[in-house]
């Protein structure tokens, strides 16, 4: 079964493996398969589920809500996010304005078929809205009982610090950040992680297997396997393209197989276990297009990777690892 960790400096406990439905539900897989994957997650001991209103233009929330219907609500931790445009994409259909935040939480709750979410997250930093307005809107969402906790996603260290200061003044706290993080993408380590640890936030990391690259199925000089994310024209291929263009990186990933073998893990399990070695990481988000993928990936929970193997991973990947903290700021568009 899956271990639990506290989320930030709060009393909320979440499974260290979170089931997410970013590129799958309402898009890549049929609803019946999506529901089967959610059931597999529950059977494996996962109680934490992450989604966003923008995923499949709200369809992912609806699929997740239907899949979880009938489960004891108090036994689940349901997360969603707000920022990106949904619907007709009018002038106020995106960002973190008071109008968009308060309207979006109501839409998310309706689609998820719940009275509240455990964690409501700012999906990006909004350069077009005063931070004071955004944090006041989140404070009101909490006071209305529509969200129990507030988090952010892909915020820089300075943005997190400013947000936490305002949140504290308004009577609540930011408890999490949701960044991309993997063996190959470590841009949060230099600034975001130390700041988060200081201020009481944990990381809920997405893409721990680097869009599937760290599974080892993408080999240098060979086309992407049929049916893989690298061939998905609905968005998956675009997201993974950055890694697939780097043949040397693909070759170095293949050299990680002996490390996985030594630990008795698959390559995917090694990748998920690796991010969980960071004490500031509360949970790693996994997705699935087949139920058996969930059952396999949860085996990364509770794994300890010895220091010598962590050093060997660093040596193998070398300069293929991206560490520049400036990459985080690039993810929040300036409108």
Automatic annotation (TrEMBL):
Residue intervals of the NADP-dependent oxidoreductase domain: 16-316
Single GO term (MF): oxidoreductase activity
One term under GO cellular component: cytosol
Domain of life of the organism encoding this protein: Bacteria
Keywords from the UniProt entry: NADP, Oxidoreductase
Keyword Repressor: no
Keyword Oxidoreductase in annotation: yes
InterPro entries: AKR (IPR020471), K_chnl_volt-dep_bsu_KCNAB-rel (IPR005399), NAD(P)_OxRdtase_dom_sf (IPR036812), NADP_OxRdtase_dom (IPR023210)
Signal peptide coordinates: none
The family this protein is said to belong to: Belongs to the shaker potassium channel beta subunit family.
Listed name of the protein: Aldo/keto reductase
